[in-house]
Amino acid sequence: MRRSRKRPSDQVSERCLAGFRNLPLFVGAAVLIATSPALAPFTRVPFAWAEPARGQSSSTAPNISAVTLVLPPEVIAGRPFTLAALGPDGRLAPGVTVRLEPDQQVTTDQTGRALFTAPASGNVLFARASGISVAVLLDPPLALATSLALRVAPVLSLRDRFSLCGAAFDGRADANRVRINGQPALVLAASSKCLVVLPGPKATPGSANVSIETGTAQWAATTELVSLEFDSPNPPLLPDKQSQVRLRVRGSEQKLHIVVENESPGVLRFLRGDTQQVVTSGGPENFAALKVKAIRTGDFSFRARLLTSPDAGAARRYLDAAAPLASPDLQSKLQRLAKRLSGSARDSEGVRRTVCSLAAATTPDDLRTLLDAACATL
Fold this sequence. Notes:
The protein is of the alpha+beta class. The chain has helices at about 10-20, 310-320, 330-340, 350-360, 365-375; strands at about 30-35, 55-60, 70, 75, 80-85, 95-100, 105, 115, 125-130, 130-140, 155, 160-165, 175-180, 185, 185-190, 195-200, 205-215, 220-230, 240-250, 255-260, 270, 275-280, 285-295, 300-305.
């Protein structure tokens, strides 16, 4: 967006954005990619991975999207909010046309972001671009107090975008100045209630102070930033031979729950399944070990991400919104699943498995998008 005069907040945002222009936006917290001819050395190189945002599904090719839409996890009815579009290379994508119900349409600007006004009523909001559909929760336009505490996860990945939620933020991304240990962070998406942020290129592992300033208020919170790094397989891989890969955590001595995914099952396999949930050892040498076996020579890659805490309340709201779109039998099942997430008898893991299975078996449409969203929040 070109302006003849820039506010201080615009200048801060532009300086911050300049540091990100040539960087891929990593969604996986750590990625190892290597070539495995017999006895050849293994090397780690950067690998950009763009995955669908929460609740996003494709009507053209499942699990593969031309763009990824990034929205705040909650938006406020009748108020402005900012979304972002990522291209297939994982970078912010200008010129992407995004449609929001009922009749709004806008194209992302040179920063890869676009400003909308949320509908005045409803429970969920759908955004669509290039065959991709994403759903986010739509909250009523209640008064937002500036004194609410800033909510941030206790541990964050250096390479992953994350959400900051509270109240009275600015729906214009550039009007929220976010810093991590004093270093600017990039605000990808923003609403009055939540921001989606990417740590800056100078962020380092360890304890982190997160601060937000708008024109009218400021907030602060503490967290830990971690770097997840793979060691090369030991012993070196040979076809049909077992080896071990260590995933190391820098920046925290806590035991962390991490999801590790094998992206090359035809070349290498994890002995306990190609998607594993692991718990790190904790302590100064914080790591998790994975047993692997080479199948044949070739390129392989795998990635790791922090496992977030389930949000049963958000999942229940998505299931409630999905039920009216379902057949009578499925509607009853979704209502029972939503009930299991209520009160003291919560069964998040069991519900997650069922909802994710239902989503995978559903034709891509609004119902599928809502089921994907419920699955992702659990």
